Amino acid sequence: MPDRTDWTWEYEGYDPAQERLRESLCTLGNGYFATRGAAPECTADSVHYPGTYAAGCYNRLTSDVAGHQVENEDMVNLPNWLPLRFRTGSGTWLSPDTHRLLDHHQRLDLRSGTLERTLRYEDEGGRHLAVRQLRLVHMADPHLALLRTEFTAEGWSGEVEVESALDGTVTNTGVERYRSLASQHLTHVHTGTASDDTVWLRCRTTASDVRVGLAARTVTDGSAETGTAHEGARAAHLLRIRVTDGRTATVDKTVALHTSRDPAISDPLYAAVDRAGRAPDVAALLASHRRAWQQLWRNAELDVPNGAGPILRLHLFHVLQTLSPHTADLDVGVPARGLHGEAYRGHVFWDELFVLPYLNLHLPEVSRALLTYRHRRLERACSAATDAGHTGAMYPWQSGSNGREETQQLHLNPRSGRWLSDHSHLQHHVGSAIAYNVWQYCEASGDTQFLHTKGAEMLVQIARFWSGIAAYDATLGRYRITGVVGPDEYHEAYPGADKPGLDDNAYTNVTAAWVLARTLDVLRGLPDPRRRDLFERTALDPGELNAWEDVSRKLHVPFHDEVISQFAGYGDLAELDWDGYRKQYGDIRRLDRILEAEGDTVNRYQASKQADVLMLGYLFSPAELRGLFQRMGYELDDDTWQRTVDHYLRRTSHGSTLSSLVHGWVLARARRADAWTYVQESLAGDIADLQGGTTGEGIHLGAMAGTLDLVQRGLTGLETRGGALRLDPVPLPELSDYGFAIRYRGHWGVQLRLSSGEVRITVPESDREPIDIALADRTVSVAPGESCTLDLPDR
Length: 795
What we know:
This protein is α+β, with helices and mostly antiparallel strands.
């Protein structure tokens, strides 16, 4: 584990086995692009993996997999701007893997968004060279990055040769299980020299034809012999610097990156060369970068004491680097693994369900942009539904550039080495997640313009899809949704079935009912002119609305042994010998892979990868969930919910970082004594790499944002509903005294502080209307410039 303070994460020593993990956790980004925290003097190999990724930059390649031609779309690893290698005299290039490393220290400064690296090399002749590097990906100017390197000779004087390069030979090989697949996404790589201190590189992606331009300006603070050495797909600037014992020589590398997806440019290469040439000096770049971060931290204020505080701040740091204010100008979704690596191919899943609730109350303009990404792909989702014989919008489980289904057809089990059919595209509940985020965003922001236009259009088509695939079963007197896969993901088919899909997944059906009911509410609240336009645009008729009402009240929810069944027939599955498997394998998070390697299948057992039914307790407050079940004709009392929680708690392997988060959230209300164990696990998920090597392939953005939302909404019971901030706190002993600031309906910096059995709300001065605060059976109005302290009810 790294050393940490409230604002820094530090790694002492060089450990090749930990390098990939550290590279992910030391990634720097600004929402437009991000670069992994790799050593600039090292190239991609079994230890190091430099990677640079621009949000929304995808490309498709076709691979031969197990005799099948399979097409995959990937977030592209762009040309590497980091390379800066050095050597003393006529020695070889210094590297931590080939030379003696006397000291090595890395320091990630969250407050300023910088990565500092200090090290001391011993060359072949026994001479010592101290190196200090400072890097940033600029938060104010999203197209700039900087690498400052300082060299100090210790006990000798002579020459240091430096090569500052742009490397276009990169491929997408950062995930081991993908390495047998096609990985060459860049073509037409050209290099050149723009001026004495600036080199450039341009290329394009092979299929999507995204053009990329980079320029690197490299200067030193003293005299140096300079030249260029462009070779193949590498543009290199050479400097020969005279160093004197004890005196420091500095090399500054300023890089500009543009792609043809950028607005207001004519050519990405010209834009990059021009921006690099006009970039200010290092002092000015650092000052504007730090100022941008200062403003971000001020608007996302988070004060959590004890050991959880620094981890939450690290999580917030990576969320802001992936989804910053710059994201509001982009056509991008929420990449499940951030811009930190190539796992999941950079695809957009349902992880925004765990991310947007946090962003809604801090960067609502970013939430709006992320939802607009979904709206731009609404037509594609409607086409997908039509092609499958359905109505409405069938959003893909995995999305990328244009909104088509990007879920892989086959996936590799590393334990058995077998390629297996992948049916996760049947997770149609992603549509409900999009609808939920539309509603939550509009409630938090008060953005009725979005709700009445793009939001309403998405809600209508998603509701239409659910109503269309729900079939009435006269024997039950209820509607059923069949042939789906739930959030659990372990279960894709019934034992022995000849086709994939499960019936009446409880999470899917309940959230579908919520979508239908909520869409009807939105339609009733539309202004008449807009309502008429929407009905005409989507060919809605009153008969459809009557059907939605009926389906929303009569969707089937299966039960067994007085608990909610994950899906119809779940209670008939065999019980697993959990103790036996833990004793045999230790870590059984990926139980599905273990069983498949044994020739068995997890489809036979009551075993879940992650929270499925319990996700309902994550999305809805206890009162809202009870009301939803009651509307559907079911009673969900506290005892039934408690039995349901206990049932699945004993049968979940937590093969996803999201699982411990959801369990911690739910247990905070259902069984508080056990909640902290899961909260701790969700906090440690990436920093301790609990999923066994996966963090080195990219952080888990949903889990990171979810821990922030656990503090913001989960433990406070904060809901933005009915035009009021509603609170129902359940502070844990370990997290009972903390504060944070939010944006709510035009109010900036609304502060909430929980401590000693009370909550204090402070609303900054403004010309906005007062905020209504609801706690238990009491509602108070807090005007701008005022504070209010409310006692928490006993629990």
